[in-house]
Amino acid sequence: MPIGVLCAMTGEIALLREDMEVTGRETVGGREFLTGRLYGREAVLALSGIGKVAAACAATILLDHFGAETLIFSGTAGGVDPTLRTGDLVVSDRSVQHDVDAIGEALFQVPGYDQPWFDGDQRLTALAAEAAARFFERDMAGEVPTEHLAPFGITRPRVAVGTIASGDQFISEREKNRWLSEHIGNLRCVEMEGAAAAQVCVEFGVPHVILRVISDGANEESAVDFEAFIDQAARYFTRGAVRELIKSL
Ligand code: ADE
């Protein structure tokens, strides 16, 4: 059974697409899924599109139609943990849908669940953290042209494991960032898809992991910082981390 890999944006998926040995292309639900081999393993790769519904839809197709046995969601995120810098990589051990607030439920709890988060897979989380560290220590300097690192001040990025929060909002206000940090335990970063794909994986009983490189500080500068990072750098980080993870599975 294949490994499923999703990214939300072309700037995140670009180099994974180049590396994929494509044997088939199938459009389902308006999305093109590439099947074939990625870093020596049977895989299905797709662009989910942005947001929770897009992510859930793509994840469902990957699991139900393509029979993916594992789901890796990779891309960028806005940093919430103040120790994180642009280029650092976050691996999820749990994820939260930060825009869920249903009547009669705990804040962030999706009705029908008994906790306001989705657990990741411990083995995948550990392997992904090791994989990202390996990419940083062994490969990054030789693989990512300096002109794609220097503008962002990236020298020695680090890996953090923790909670990733997803919502249908681009977070660009310090106030909101602070509120999320106060309300979500061990929150490292925010993005717009991971916890929706996680819910689908939990429902299908398929292990998943979210890998996110910090592109901005989820603050008033984020729109500009994010665009620049997506254009110039994101693709190198998603490829490096996903490659090393797939090779270790
Ligand atoms: N993805 C990257 N940066 C983000 C931000 N600030 N908010 C939501 N998703 C993001």
Keywords:
binds adenine; 29% strand; 249 residues; alpha/beta; 37% helix; five-stranded mixed barrel
Can you put this structure into words, describing what you see?
The two termini are 13 Å apart. Strands 5-9-8-6-10 form a five-stranded mixed beta barrel, surrounded by five helices. The model has no long low-confidence stretch (mean pLDDT 98). Helices cover 37% and strands 29% of the residues. By secondary structure, the protein is an alpha/beta fold. A hairpin with a 2-residue loop joins strand 3 (31-38) and strand 4 (41-47). Helix 1 packs across helix 7. The chain has helices at 10-19, 52-65, 122-143, 174-183, 194-204, 222-232, 234-248, and strands at residues 3-7, 21-28, 31-38, 41-47, 70-79, 89-97, 118-119, 159-166, 187-191, 208-216. Adenine is lined by residues 76-78, 170-172, 190-192, 215-216, 218, 222, 226.
Brief account:
This protein is of the alpha/beta class and 249 residues long.
Number of alpha- plus pi-helical segments? 7
Morphology: globular
Report Rg.
Answer: 17 Å
If you average the pLDDT, what whole number results?
Answer: 98
Number of separate strands: 10
The structure class reads alpha/beta
Largest sheet: 5 strands, mixed, barrel
The kinds of small molecule bound in this structure are: adenine
Termini Cα gap: 13 Å
Q: Strand order, biggest sheet?
A: 5-9-8-6-10
Order of helices and strands: EHEEEHEEEHEHEHEHH
Low-confidence stretches: none
Q: Give the amount of beta strand, in percent.
A: 25-35%
Helix content: 25-40%
